[in-house]
Amino acid sequence: EKGGYDWFMLKEIAEQPAVVADTLRGRLTETGEIHLDEMRLSDDDLRDVGKIFIIACGTSYYAGMVAKYAIEHWTRIPVEVELASEFRYRDPVLDRSTLVIAISQSGETMDTLMALRHAKSQHARILAICNTIGSTIPRESDAVLYTRAGVEIAVASTKAFLTQIVACYLVALYLGQIRGTKWGDEVSAVVGQLQEMPAAVDKVLDTMEPVRELARTLAEADQILFLGRHVGFPVALEGALKLKELAYMHAEGFAAGELKHGPIALIGEGTPVVIVVPSPLGRDSLHGKVVSNIQEVRARGARTIVIAEEGDDKVVPYADHVIRVPRTPVLMAPLVTTVPLQVMACEIAAARGLDVDQPRNLAKSVTVE
Ligand code: M6R
């Protein structure tokens, strides 16, 4: 049932092009519009949304962090992303014009469910983004958009993460479409980009053998640090979480801009640092700033493992290892840059002789608070 793979996790990583395509299927029209009738929230309700909260835990929370960039950019609706376990304890400001998006692979995470119930009691509207049909979170929500990742068996979430990002993007584009903040050509342009992502993810998977080899050389490291900016920041956090979960290794993700504000002190001779580099074509010269960060950490002894777009030569002089991903528009990048981090964590754990699919102390779905 592992389909020839050593681990369910590897099989699930390999399924990502297909599940991304599945999550898009039937939700886009030929003319590049978004159709989400299945969602059960009326267009009138959605037009009135003044504020969005995304609540989730773990990897689903990181998908929410990625989604925030797209939702605010495409809809101009303010978005807050919050750990479900923290949400209701700080008396968040909620009312009828608040849309709460609860992201959960299992649909049974107790922290997310309790946060959702709190939001409901304050009259917010609830949209679940969930992978498990008929589970508790979608049942208690006003609306649901299902991810179509299929059953995820490995405790570490992989394919669910990519489909959560895609589902959030569909919601964002739909909101933009009905509210007129994105219209016609703009929506269809992004739809075109989304449709290209299964092939892009496939391309990354084809180049993973050197990443596995590299990962095996990292198995004895004391710690691995991950840096990213913009949507690359949640990707860095996700890379670190995968490594903690699977390899029981100290791993931290940082916003690269925070380096000088503390984390750079962690870097010593040979410390592996994985840097998720934004596209050189992106806005706000972020690329140049991250290239400087690579230089800075290397000057302090780091072994730099750089995830960069094909054709991005600026990183080469400062990279001990370069992992190439296909060129994508900025907001699509997490769908490709996450994949090598998943493969690395899996391989490092295997090299340490650990059970990749069933890490110690963890359960697939956390049904207690
Ligand atoms: O089922 P959920 O998406 O609600 O689960 C949330 C987290 O428990 C989950 O993502 C967890 O962090 C994974 N083990 C990450 O790999």
TrEMBL record:
It comes from the Bacteria. One of its GO terms (cellular component) is cytosol. Homodimer. It is found in: Cytoplasm. Residues 42-181, 214-359 form the SIS domain. Its EC number is 2.6.1.16. This is Glutamine--fructose-6-phosphate aminotransferase [isomerizing]. Catalyzes the first step in hexosamine metabolism, converting fructose-6P into glucosamine-6P using glutamine as a nitrogen source. The active site is at 364 (for fru-6p isomerization activity). It is an enzyme of class 2 (transferase). The chain holds residues 253 to 621 of 621 of the full protein. One of its GO terms (biological process) is fructose 6-phosphate metabolic process. The keyword Oxidoreductase does not apply. It comes from Antricoccus suffuscus. It catalyses: D-fructose 6-phosphate + L-glutamine = D-glucosamine 6-phosphate + L-glutamate. Keywords: Aminotransferase, Cytoplasm, Glutamine amidotransferase, Repeat, Transferase. Coiled coil: none annotated.
